[in-house]
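Our consortium's second objective concerns turning raw sequence data into structural hypotheses that experimental partners can test. To show how far this objective has progressed, the report includes one record in full. It was chosen at random from the queue rather than selected for favorable results. The single chain below, 175 residues long, was entered without modification.
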Amino acid sequence: MTPSPRASRVALFMMVIAAIFWLGGVNIRAMIGNDMLKTGTLEFEEYLAPEAEREIFRLLSFASLIVMISYAAVLICATVFLTTTPLRFREHGWLMVSAILFYAFVPVEIFTMSLDARMVYMEFFTTAGNDVFRELFIARVAALAGAPVIALLCYYTIIGLAVFRPLTRRTQPAP
């Protein structure tokens, strides 16, 4: 199969749009959940009323739904882009490093998305109380000893790699 520049452009465009929603949703989710815990601990603040806490969990569920859908779109579009692009890893080291950083954390994302999916399920299909959401939230925050945070830093590194394109081999013109 020959690489299709048109298919790779469409996949790249869709991947960029989905990545904006995905990384934006991750940041929104972090900002929403940030005030629920005491600084530096996994203990909940006491000043939150149960109704306010429930609303925060509802907002976290909506943000998680957007993140899960967007991540799946990025994963599919990235795979299509890498299989259809005329760019080769040998000449474009930045693309290879970006692919390694992205695909290395797929298992981490799948695990954390399973926790997010349980929260979304609890929000939309059950009448679970705050205690269930608290348990899921703590499991999500403490998941894999910080690997999701390292993954997020790698995703931001990918943006820098794509913008500055280091490790690009310059081909010499024929004499």
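The partners drew two points from this record. Helices lie at 5-34, 50-84, 93-104, 106-125, 130-141, 147-164. Residues 5-164 form one domain. Both points have been shared with the crystallography group to help prioritize constructs.
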